Amino acid sequence: MVKKKGAKKILLVEDEALLAEMYRELFEKEGFDIMSAGTGEEAISVALKEKPAFILLDILLPESNGIYFLEQRRQDPEIADIPVIAFSNFDDPKMKESALSLGAKDYLIKTNYTPQEVVAKVKQYVK
User: Fold this and answer.
1) What kind and span of H or E run contains 56?
2) Between residues 6 and 19, which one has the greater pLDDT?
3) Helix or strand or coil: residue 89?
4) What are phi and psi of 13, to 5 degrees?
5) Between the CA of residue 48 and those of 19, 64, 75, 97, what are the distances in Å?
6) Residues of the chain above pLDDT 70, percent
7) By its UniProt entry, which SMART domains does this protein fall under (predicted)?
8) What confidence score (pLDDT) does residue 4 get?
């Protein structure tokens, strides 16, 4: 898909290729420029390079999880203020509390939301 000039950048951090591609297509249809990462380390690198307007962060990732990403993000002033929604199939109150205390705007359980509802939630934060 052709990137639109001035389109808001969203970083999608998702290790499941099928889900990542589905969300990419949905966000691009809404006019966003999507970049993706499959690990917490990769997400830090992409966020520092691209400075996205928003980050949609899976919590369960290979190597290091989304909590690691949130901790690293918080420590780096270049990316600390980028809004993040954590989303996961891991419905654990302690994990949710950790994500929110580290600055996530919301913690969504993937199975409780349609992909379109997730996109709508993100759009609330990206003006």
Assistant:
1) strand 54-58
2) 19
3) coil
4) -105, 100
5) 23, 17, 12, 25
6) 96
7) REC
8) 57
Q: List the chain domain ranges.
A: 16-91+104-125
- The strands making up 54-58's β-sheet, listed across from edge to edge, are 33-37, 9-13, 54-58, 84-88, 106-109
**pLDDT above 70: residue 2:** no
Stretch 44-54: mean pLDDT: 96
Is residue 16 a contact partner of residue 24, using CB atoms and an 8 Å limit?
no
For 1-30, give one letter per residue: b (16+ CB within 10 A) or e: eeeeeebbbbbbbbbeeeebeebbebbbeb
Tell me: domain 16-91+104-125, CATH 3.30.565.10, correct?
A: no
CB-facing half-sphere around the CA of 109: CA atoms within 13 A: 8
Q: What is the pLDDT of residues 76-86, one digit of tens each?
A: 999 999 999 99
pLDDT digits over 98-115, tens only?
Answer: 999 999 999 999 999 999
Length of the chain, in residues: 127
